[in-house]
Design goal:
alpha/beta; Rossmann fold; 11 helices; 12% strand
Amino acid sequence: MSQFGFASTADEVLDGMDLTGRIILVTGGYSGLGQETARALAARGAHVILSGRDATKLAAAADEIAELTGARIDTLVCDLASLASIRAAGTEARERFGHIDVLINNAGVMAAPLGRTEDGFETQFGTNHLGHFALTGELMSLLEKGSGQRIVNLSSRGHHIAPVDFDDPGFERRAYDPWIAYGNSKTANVLFAVGLEQRFGGRGIHAFALHPGGIHTNLARHMSEEDMAALLDRIRKAAEATGETPVSFKTIPQGAATTCWVATTPELEGRGGLYAEDCDVSEIDDTSATGGVRSYALDRDNAERLWALSEKLTGTRFGG
């Protein structure tokens, strides 16, 4: 059991650590959880690379974090909804950086209305999973040159909503439901960590997925007040149905804690293919509404199906 928990903050998790010399890339690094994660890691001496689609916002966040921490902060423009942008970012990263030690796939969208990425993928599956799949593939050669390497995928308890629909991931034939689509993408984030661990864990590159907690950030930018009320009601009813107490929301510093724990804790050395929440590894639980990881999200056969589908859709092939 970890010494940290639900209320721990990113600074508390990292207290006493020296991350000098570690290069850590954070997607969605200019707001919300991503920015707080980057700030906390930089405050312990890490060289942080902020990635996102808006160059102006990236520059502003980098300046702010550098001023607060005195650390080296670089930026990398990358739109996860565009394979062309991802490939350009990969080329730029390989030219500018000698290696990467930790990749934190933090960016995401939630409950978006039906839409398509530049390449025709359903927005949430395309951005939350396929974009990160392609970007990780682009950066793998840099990760292979790192040390103590970890890949951290931000999933969500939203993976409880639905497994990946391998037959219709883009809602081409079934009616679109923004929450089912979100659940599909968050399950994919976990399965991607399982697939990465199967391929690269033996070479010292370990992968994880996590639930940061319920946090009020711009992740919910597509949601109206009515949508948010409906979400809270859904959470309450799901907990009541299992006789559990609904989980409280976290602050942003608390929400960034599990990411920072997974990215740095010695407790996970040599391990991977795991799902964490509240700064600890979660148990498989197919019934709880308030915690645990669904068995279908850790299923190796599902991970292999997702990997094959992701390669087909993105054209990405991982070296090695």
